[in-house]
Amino acid sequence: MSVLQPPAGPDAAGPVPFLSRLHEWVTTVDHKKIGTMYIVCGIIYLIIAGLEATLMRWQLTWPGMDVLTPEEFNRLFTMHGTTMVFFVGMPILLGSANILIPLMIGARDLAFPRLNAFSFWLFFFGSLLLYFSYFGGQGLYGMGSAPDVGWFAYAPLTERTFSRGHSTDYWILGIFVAGIGSTATAANFIATILGMRCRGMTLMKMPLLVWIMLVDSVIILLALPPLAAAQILLLFDRLLGAHFFDAQAGGSALLWQNLFWFFGHPEVYILILPGFAFVTEIIPVFSRKVIFGYPLMVAATVAIGFISLGVWAHHMFVVGLSPMLNTIFMGSTMLVGVPTGIKMFNWVATMIGGRIRFDTPMLYATGFLCQFLLGGLTGIFLATVPFDWQVSDSYFVVGHFHFVLFGGLVFAILAAVFYWFPKVTGRMMNETLGKWQFWLLVIGFNITFGAMHVSGFLGMPRRVYTYHTDRGWDFWNLLTSLGVIVQILGFALFALNLVHSLFKGKKAGDDPWDAWTLEWSTTSPPPPHNFEEDPVVHSRRPLWDLKHPDDPDWKYE
Amino acid sequence: MLHCGLGAGLLMALARPPQLAPAPTPTMFDPVGVPAETILDITWLLIGVCGAIGVIMFCLIGFAIVRCRRPEGDDREPPQVYGSNPIELAWTVIPLLIVFVLFMVSARGIFELERTSPPEGSTELTVIGHRWWWEFDYGDLGVVTAGELHVPIDEGGVADLYLTLKSADVAHSFWVPQLGPKMDVIPDRVNHLWLQANRPGTFVGQCAEYCGTQHANMLITVVVESRENFNAWVQNQQKEAADDSAVAAGKRLFLRTACINCHTVRGTVANGTFAPDLTHLMSRSMIGSGAVPNTPENLREWVWDPQNIKPGCEMPSMKLSRSEVDLVCAYLETLR
């Protein structure tokens, strides 16, 4: 009944009522608040999708388990994949870019704050549409259910013949709606980065995070519309009786694969590039050394962005492309390893000769380096077509992309959370809890996803709800499932740490890490328009210049 | 009575499918032919090259972690190194060279393994992926079977297998790791796949492209056997269905139920093609495309209600009574 109570007067002391605070968040156009909402949603969906994965691992712990029916299992892996990519990876990257880009380039906000808010709400309701399918997926009669077509939803399994009810329609619409938001935000980021940098910040003086987000936004702009187009065609098939992907009526099943992966592979880089961005900022600060080879890092980022648009058919090495096509796409896929390798080398070169402090952000960044290295190397394995012919669509692939997206991206995200949490909330996260979480995650992660590589080598295909004991996969599946328990403990500590630090964390101050980029020159949390006065920079590390007037960066750049 | 019981017992004994040697784990590290061996050779090269890169990188990272820590209470900043053109050039060019070598080796593998015509003397057959079972059509031999594939091998020779892959519904993928690569089976495409075995044995695999509810139970068994055994198998498969008057009641029941809309039993009115051909059902070691072994008990449970064994599969329970199921199964058990 608090609605009916008279509003507190301007001079009334005490906490702001809940509804007012809610109203403030819902109507905000402030980039930091919108960014925070993205990240909070992303973390909630991370928990949901993580629980979905846990259920699947429970079912696969031993051969022939009956925890889930095949339909339930198939829904779970579809929802797990879709959620992790579109409603965990995307919002966390869009949210952190939202918070960091204006702060790092010395701007008051994004170029189009209202568009930014609009994009967030598109994402938010898009995600609800997808999850509403659990209730309304089979229409209004009977039990609802989620889509069970896999996150890449291969045609013609998604046609009405094979996918009854409306679950696939919800899958299409949820991602489509959220995708409009992502595309608009990418345009927003590009406009902001190109048009709103503070005085003195030329393109080659931008922090590398901003460079990477610029390239990332360009890939989003180029890759998401083809997905939207493909989804609309599929919707035509399903609702209007068209036959774009209906092989039995002259449509093409491969067309969907081409369109989807033309989005789908760049999407992998869209997700991992922000991970690169985080560690590129964190490693130098904790090594106390400037990033090694800034211009080459920029070049490598642009090269990754460019090549990533020409590798999509490496997801289709087993569909029977001609030897020449397979060879060409193998070449482009292997080539993308070169700029990625350059980044690895430059990160390590930054650490060597530094004086490294292993606070939690650096711990996670180092974890990222090791884990992503392994994921990158198995990526070269998979780029090799004959090898891919064996393990494509097996658990080896599942292990590989979890090393990249979990061991890589999630560890980078955790590094970023521990690093920028003080800036966003004004409080430090707990170091002890953070270190316990780190080691639990490292152990659990490697057990789970290391074992998956072996299952793949032994011939276990992905997306099977059960397996027979005579196949010899029992031990490795048991190991995979046991690792999950360790990971759950790690994430429980993370949740505890987040909540505890939000209310009880040590006060952070403006610059707890002794860092060098502009966001650390303002208060924590920053005021509504970020800076008291418009900053002016002379080098890539404005705060270094300030702290070392005798030895400023601009002398050497 | 005694006679009847003895007859039934004999029938049961005869009905047992030929015992196959237990299949080994379908691992790519135990190849039995040129395609799988070529892939394994490339894999060892990859493990060597990528392993070396990994060891070097981990040494560098380890060095940084151990030797480049900040000493306790020492707040001085280290020397700032902005980059080095020769070093950066080195770690751009060297990976390019490594990638080039891997590319050339693998490209050769691609052109060797992706054959567009069958090798000399190969067994050719058409594989049709269905939800959720495999149909094998030997073409001119007049043999159509499901789930279990037979290939002849000569003494000391190799068995080449050249598959034409088609799908009846959605995308599947044919994968028997020990014999060679996998290949997707896509409804609007005709794909080809060359596999090879250099010794007799039983090799297993399964569908590798998600195709719906029972994707997990779409198994493949490949039996590589001597030419005599293969010829005997073909001769048996070419025969029309057994017509044993002892199970006439079961046969009548079978032909009167909806079974015949989906299943074929050659020589009867049952000519459905939606589901596996049952003419020689008992010659196969598994039912439900590998869901369970083909034992009399399992067969009865399967006919009673397939949804208990393979939930979500396309075969419904025919709502027969237990005694009717016994009758039908007694008939099915004569289809050797």
Give the structure's gist in a few sentences.
Chain A has 557 residues and is an all-alpha fold. Chain A contains 16 helices and one strand.
How much β-strand is present in the residues of chain B?
15-25%
Number of strands of chain B: 12
User: Helix fraction of chain A?
Assistant: 55-70%
Task: Give the biggest sheet of chain A.
Answer: none
Q: What kind of sheet is the major sheet of chain B?
A: 5 strands, mixed
- Assigned CATH class of the largest domain in chain B: Mainly Beta
Distance between the termini of chain B: 26 Å
CATH architectural group of the largest domain in chain B: Sandwich
Percentage of residues in DSSP E strands of chain A:
under 5%
- Rg of Cα set of chain A: 24 Å
* Main sheet strand line-up of chain B: 3-2-1-5-8
Name the overall outline of chain A.
Answer: globular
What name does CATH use for the topology of chain A? Cytochrome C Oxidase, Chain A
Characteristics:
heterodimer; A: 557 residues; mainly alpha; Cytochrome C Oxidase, Chain A; 16 helices; globular; B: 336 residues; alpha+beta; Immunoglobulin-like; three-stranded mixed sheet; 12 strands; elongated; disordered N terminus
Detail the topology: elements first, then pairings:
The complex is a heterodimer of chains A (557) and B (336).
Chain A: H1 18-27, H2 31-60, H3 70-105, H4 113-136, E1 137-140, H5 167-195, H6 208-240, H7 253-287, H8 294-308, H9 323-335, H10 337-351, H11 360-383, H12 385-391, H13 395-425, H14 431-457, H15 474-504, H16 542-547
Helix pairs in contact in A: 2-3, 2-4, 2-15, 3-5, 3-7, 4-5, 5-6, 6-7, 6-8, 7-8, 7-10, 7-11, 7-13, 8-10, 10-11, 11-13, 11-14, 13-14, 14-15
Chain B: H1 2-15, H2 34-67, H3 85-113, E1 123-130, E2 133-137, E3 144-146, E4 148-153, E5 159-167, E6 172-174, E7 183-185, E8 191-197, E9 201-206, E10 219-226, H4 227-238, H5 248-256, H6 259-262, E11 286-287, E12 292-293, H7 296-304, H8 306-309, H9 322-332
Parallel strand pairs in B: 1-5, 4-10
Antiparallel strand pairs in B: 1-2, 2-3, 5-8, 6-7, 9-10, 11-12
